[in-house]
Amino acid sequence: MSESHTTDVEGSTDELARRAERAALRLANADEATRNEALRSIADEIREREAEILAANAVDVEEAEAMLADGEYTQALVDRLKLDATKVEEIASMVESVAEQDDPLGETLSARELDEDLELYRVAVPIGVVATVFESRPDALVQIAALALKSGNAVVLKGGSEASESNRVLHEAIVEATADLPDGWAALIEAHEEVDRLLELDDRVDLVMPRGSSEFVSYIQETTQIPVLGHTEGICHVYVDEAADLEMAEEVAFDAKVQYPAVCNAVETLLVHESVADDFLPGLVARYEEAGVELRGDERTREVVDVDPATDDDWDTEYGDLELSIRVVDDTYAAVEHVNHHGSKHTESILTEDAETAEAFMTGVDAASVFHNASTRFADGYRYGLGAEVGISTGKIHARGPVGLEGLTTYKYYLEGDGHLVASYSGEDAVPFTHRELDGAEWTPGRR
């Protein structure tokens, strides 16, 4: 890369970040009605541009399928990339559902009297400027932008090159629909050099949210001083216990793999208690094979059903496709040990009718979401009632699991006094603090 091009990228990215920072400060003060009206305008604009969106997506898909034929892309990536009329309507409806969510801003999280007429309030506020780098799904761009807008944040978006045409049109629709909002609140970058420069701007960008492999998220964390909220792969498990309702377990295990295998909350490894393996596995394996699932199993599994042998790498692989590994385990504790060793802290599920066993698994597993008698596919912001999600955080700090509006807020302390002085609370004649909780109290600006 030439020196002049480097300067151009740095200059344009710096200006983009400055505009986003200014926009964030103004957007934080936009009232809920303004933000909701803008979201509904985005939904309308997406519907009006359906033909344009689908035409752009067709270009992306055609190029991706050529890369698939050359072995450079996977079928899962191509599947995530595709849009149709139904999907466009779902995207628009998702934006409207975000508008219908409760306002995450201005909520008084706690209130405490420090002394008479001296009251401290902790209030929810936007984070500021959030940057996100995500994979091939074009709908992710709209989800992230919608959640950022509802939560009063400016956003810098970087989608995958495989979805570049789709992302451009969707971004244009968002910008056109929100022309009355602060300029620069939603920016799109495309070059890797722009991402590298953005990661240096820790004085302007408040949070980075990468969505991708563990290696990619680790690279972002090692490259920047900006706080990182990572969405890594989903190596999810379903464990079928000896006390499981086997008919239910079969339906759940089938749904978790086959309903939509290209996503991060699809199951990749099935664990089965040794006492039910003979009764459970043959019927489920037959259904999997009929659905086109490529199966691998450990030695104990292959004593029961005819599947390919699993390798050590299989237990640590996110297939994102119709592929599944199966392991027979001694008991629940062996299942927990396997999950904690090989899982990605995303989503795990146990099938059992024994409450104590369910508790042992659910409390013992280290994951953002742990389910009892339910498909891992429920790990989703929309299904959780969050409206949408910017990603699923597999870390433990700030936000965990599907990250919706609450995960895009932080808080600020507001202190309301009446000429109070710290000197009054120091020395031999110090006035004591009351430190009394004010249950149900709400902060009102300039209330005195």
TrEMBL record:
Record's keyword annotation contains Signal: no
Pathway: Amino-acid biosynthesis; L-proline biosynthesis; L-glutamate 5-semialdehyde from L-glutamate: step 2/2
Entry EC no(s): 1.2.1.41
Annotated ranges, domain Aldehyde dehydrogenase: 13-295
Domain of life: Archaea
SUPFAM superfamilies: ALDH-like
Keyword terms of this UniProt record: Amino-acid biosynthesis, Cytoplasm, NADP, Oxidoreductase, Proline biosynthesis
Principal location listed in the UniProt entry: cytoplasm
Catalytic activity: L-glutamate 5-semialdehyde + phosphate + NADP(+) = L-glutamyl 5-phosphate + NADPH + H(+)
GO function term, MF aspect, one: glutamate-5-semialdehyde dehydrogenase activity
GO cellular component terms given for this protein: cytoplasm
NCBIfam families: PRK00197.1, proA
Family of the protein in this entry: Belongs to the gamma-glutamyl phosphate reductase family.
HAMAP family: ProA (MF_00412)
Protein name per its UniProtKB record: Gamma-glutamyl phosphate reductase
Lineage: Archaea, Methanobacteriati, Methanobacteriota, Stenosarchaea group, Halobacteria
Gene encoding the protein: proA
